[in-house]
């Protein structure tokens, strides 16, 4: 999820980097699987913050279009790496659960937190109608593309239905990826003014950096991005390999780990950054654009990418989600779309979203 500067959040999470060597050493020594899982799980927290910060910095250097593509690839590095590893091992359900969980975390927990942070002790605040309407509509289209395969399963009976749904998923994924390119062109090209946060201030910051420091900073940023991205893949691999044993030892279901724990860890640094930026009536419109952009990155880029990746390696990854996941996604997007449609909000709207996420978390816990 691309966000505004993460400096304060980065400082807070730096101390968690100690879990990176601990997690790797524990995995290599084949220590208790719960210990390996916890260490690598906690190591992902600062690594995701580093990746997000580095990808945002590269966006400033490389321009809007290329920067947007970098944010799409690395902005959800934890979800992508976890999904790729899960699909590679044939655990399609786990990969799908991580993706659905990431959308729910963004759309309910973080968005709700932003609305509470921005509107607490205030009367009524208003959204940027042009931006929220466009993003809300695109979000609904994304949800329809993800939900339709489940509708096919529910309404048709055919001997070859699985192959039909697989073909449909791959075709739909191609359309969603094309739609994502169109969204990038809308956000970064024709209507980028809707998504800019204090452009004059940002330009002053860029001018203050100085021309002489650009190339060294760029090289350092690329190295940080690649190193943190590789570390996330390693930690995700060690974590996923111990999930079955950890689930059995702790009585925490794999579904709860995939849908709740992993997305919260991945989105925590960025979420805290946008919630802090929204505090006291801050630029909540920018926060909303960041959050919904992250949702669209998952729905229009990450999930279709995993379907295509599964096609390449011979794994039948589809857009057919479990019925419970499908219903949860549908109702969550319906609620959020209604909130955005009103174009005004109070802290009560945010409280409702956070409360709904808590209810869903309990539902996944008991599954």
From TrEMBL:
Bilayer disposition of the protein: Multi-pass membrane protein
Gene Ontology CC entries for this record: endomembrane system; fungal-type vacuole membrane
Transmembrane segments: 6-29, 34-52, 93-118, 125-148, 168-186, 222-240, 286-312, 319-340, 346-366
Function of the molecule: Has a role in promoting intracellular calcium ion sequestration via the exchange of calcium ions for hydrogen ions across the vacuolar membrane. Involved also in manganese ion homeostasis via its uptake into the vacuole.
Native source species: Aspergillus coremiiformis
InterPro entries: CaH_exchang (IPR004713), CAX-like (IPR004798), NaCa_Exmemb (IPR004837), NCX_ion-bd_dom_sf (IPR044880)
Name under which the protein is recorded: Vacuolar calcium ion transporter
Localization per record: Endomembrane system; Vacuole membrane
